[in-house]
Design a protein that fits this description.
By secondary structure, the protein is mostly helical. It is built from 6 helices and no strands. It has one domain. Helices cover 72% and strands 0% of the residues. The chain is globular, with a radius of gyration of 18 Å. It starts with a helix and ends with a helix.
Length: 145
């Protein structure tokens, strides 16, 4: 009887962990998609100020409210989606590395005063975010990136 109870509790624990991982994956996916949309907006922005605003949005979606580089004044288009794509993907090292690349590109664009350079950095960030989903992740999530 104790073994049956133990197996039942272990099964419930495993289901809970799986649901938590699924929720984190979905949160990260939503944050990645939103960050990518803002990277593309920065890439096509007409002014340096607007491009920088959208790059701040990219950074905010990637790092989350508690992350380094978060700027509340810039706005948070990923509000309510999760804790930031980077924190929400911390168990997936390959995804996390691609998100770090996108973050570096967005941060580089913020440092530039050249709209052309900002556009190029934003394009690199958008490409990194597009590539953030591996084929295995795409297939398992049923989501098309």
């Amino acid at each position: 009887m104790k073994n049956l109870l133990f197996v039942g509790i272990a099964g419930l624990l495993a289901c809970g962990l799986a649901l938590t991982a699924f929720a984190q994956t979905n949160s990260a996916r939503d944050e990645i998609n939103t960050a990518r949309a803002h990277a593309m907006m920065a890439q096509h922005a007409d002014t340096l100020a607007m491009a920088h605003t959208h790059l701040h949005h990219v950074i905010n979606c990637l790092v989350g409210r508690d992350g380094q580089g978060f700027d509340a004044k810039a706005g948070m288009p990923c509000k309510g989606m999760g804790h930031g794509a980077l924190p929400d993907s911390k168990g997936n090292h390959a995804l996390h590395a691609k998100l770090e690349d996108a973050l570096a590109d967005a941060q580089a664009g913020l440092k530039s005063d050249s709209l052309d350079t900002v556009h190029k950095d934003a394009a690199k960030a958008a490409a990194a975010l597009k590539d953030a989903g591996t084929p295995a992740q795409k297939a398992s999530s049923g989501y098309s990136w």
